[in-house]
Amino acid sequence: MDMDRALKIAMRTGKVVLGTKQTLKSIRNGRAKVVVVSANCPDSVRDKIEGVPIQEYKGLNTELGPACGKPFPVSVLAVIEPGDSGLV
Hints:
Blueprint: H1 3-13, E1 15-18, H2 20-28, E2 34-37, H3 43-46, E3 54-56, H4 61-67, E4 76-81
Parallel strand pairs: 2-3
Antiparallel strand pairs: 1-4, 2-4
Keywords: Ribonucleoprotein, Ribosomal protein
Domain Ribosomal protein eL8/eL30/eS12/Gadd45: 2-85
Family: Belongs to the eukaryotic ribosomal protein eL30 family.
């Protein structure tokens, strides 16, 4: 499935948290099923992601945000509940 389409479905039918702070918090709490990182996500953030599968988004953070239906850049997000997206 196309990643952009899967993200839109996850945003609509599941539960997704956006941003570094919320993503790391969901990983610590054991709620994150998968983490999606943009191509230009800082290494300092990537190094903190442990114990959860990571999906690479091929575009930049300025493309990941709109793919999620947001008007701002998103470097990292965590899928808590995938809904009908099939991301997990």
